Amino acid sequence: MDPTAQQFGEVLKEARLRSGLSQQELSFQASIHWTYVSQLERGLKNPTLSVILRLAAALDVTAAQLVAEVERRA
């Protein structure tokens, strides 16, 4: 398993929970399938830049904040 994908997944899940969103709600707001959100959170998939931007917008944070937190944990 890719450690960066795993760290991104942890950051994503924490941001989602802080926002009070379910995986389904986040996926709807980001226009991606909920199973993909699940795979991202478990570190099974690496998101593209466009997905990171959509997730960040849905979470009301910047993509830079998400990536910076992944960098901090690396």
Automatic annotation (TrEMBL):
<dbReference type="InterPro" id="IPR050807">
    <property type="entry name" value="TransReg_Diox_bact_type"/>
</dbReference>
<dbReference type="Pfam" id="PF01381">
    <property type="entry name" value="HTH_3"/>
</dbReference>
<dbReference type="GO" id="GO:0005829">
    <property type="term" value="C:cytosol"/>
</dbReference>
<dbReference type="InterPro" id="IPR010982">
    <property type="entry name" value="Lambda_DNA-bd_dom_sf"/>
</dbReference>
<dbReference type="InterPro" id="IPR001387">
    <property type="entry name" value="Cro/C1-type_HTH"/>
</dbReference>
<dbReference type="GO" id="GO:0003677">
    <property type="term" value="F:DNA binding"/>
</dbReference>
<protein>
    <submittedName>
        <fullName>Transcriptional regulator with XRE-family HTH domain</fullName>
    </submittedName>
</protein>
<dbReference type="GO" id="GO:0003700">
    <property type="term" value="F:DNA-binding transcription factor activity"/>
</dbReference>
<feature type="domain" description="HTH cro/C1-type">
    <location>
        <begin position="12"/>
        <end position="66"/>
    </location>
</feature>
<keyword id="KW-0238">DNA-binding</keyword>
